[in-house]
Design brief:
Layout (H helix, E strand, L loop, with lengths): L6 H13 L3 E6 L4 E4 L1 H7 L3 H4 L4 H4 L5 H7 L3 E8 L2 E12 L2 E11 H27 L15 H14 L5 E4 L6 H10 L8 E5 L5 H9 E2 L12 E2 L1 H4 L4 E5 L6 H13 L1 E2 L8 E2 L3 E6 L3 H6 L5 H7 L2 E4 L10 H11 L6 E2 L1 H9 L5 H15 L4 E2 L20 H20 L3 H11 L3 H10 L5
Parallel strand pairs: 6-13, 6-14, 7-10, 10-13, 15-16
Antiparallel strand pairs: 1-2, 1-5, 3-4, 4-5, 8-9, 11-12
Length: 452
Amino acid sequence: MSFLIDSNDANWFKSIIQSVNDGILVIDSYGVVQIINKEYTNITGVIENEIVGKHLKDVRPGAELPEVLLDGKVRSGVFRKEGKNNYIVDMAPIYNGNKIIGAVSVCKSLREVHHLTQELNKSKRRLKQLEEMVGSFHRTTYSFEDIVGQNKGLLNAIHYAKKAAGTDFNILILGESGTGKELFAQAIHQSSIRNSQPFVPVNCAAIPSTLLESELFGYEEGAFTSSKKGGKSGLIDLADNGTLFLDEIGDMPLEMQSKLLRVMQDGVIRKVGSLYERKVNVRVIAATNKDLEKMISKERFRADLYYRLNTFQIKIPSLKSRKDDIPLLVDYFLQNANLHSLSPDESFIDLLMSYDWPGNIRELKNIIHYAMNMTESTRLKVGDLPDTINRNGQRSDEKTLERIIEETERDAILDVLKKTGTDLKGKKLAAKRLNISLATLYNKISRLDIPV
């Protein structure tokens, strides 16, 4: 039985075959070639009048398609060669009811297969990058239950933060360094509808301005000299459907502010070196210890970005303004360290209450941890506190050389930062004046607990 096509439908059928981008060859039940399309000719070099109407085995002695007529088995990924042309073939029988009435061969050139393989490998690399990046970023650790205190100002901040968590609006968190801005951001994310998605923190001050765009948006392979093979996904891409926490937003360069604004307005990102845009859906929580309105008046921060971020504003009070929470915080840090047998004596708490806490909660936490390790009893006493705390206006005369060097170093860095400023530009200038690298400066700021 031959593979028959109704003459009325022949042109329609041939038009369909010709429109397919893969090479097509069809034989009837006798193994006679009924039709090929132009793409088959392009891939194999075989032209229509050389093969149509002839037995395939006569024209192509090594052809496997006639065997499909006999065993009815599908064949995939068969390598074939015609002259200098290499290609891959898939073959399948054509049924009319339960009877095989022909067979079809679909082929792709090895060049196209290679291109598709490259694209597949690129997608696999991107997926691997995302999996690695997701593994390197924690999901939220803190919830609102971890925010300790009964101070009225703090309770108001928590109240507004919980309201903000119930929306999908962008949020601006204001507060001095060390007050717990990221803790609030994590708590908001944890209580939001995005809590099963990534929470991606970015410190805008810690990433050099020359790298910030590629870190946020990612880049394509070859976008610049040191770019990785296969490119890199950006932090915004990682935060898709989740929350992007932009700490120290006031240190973001103006050029990057405009690009961030477009992400927030249009929901699209474009990798460095790419011609294509991609849709993203991220909620932005930004935080700063700077006066953004003053920066706007000095044209150092975009007003349109400020209004886009400032849908919900949360102000976190400094520790200096909520000293009544210090006993609760001390107890929390002790309990969190599983040191239930330790307790502070009255003079210990009194001294903490008299200190102004320029480093806020972060400084208090570090000092309590220091005291935990210094004490030789079950009671924390004034003598367990570091010399950075002014003991009723008196400092200990018994200082080790290491302590003297640390205090001198801390005072010197603070003095320079007061003159240069604490934004990224100021820190770079400070590092230059101190004759150290920017990375070394950041390490010293962290180690010496310098408020910036």
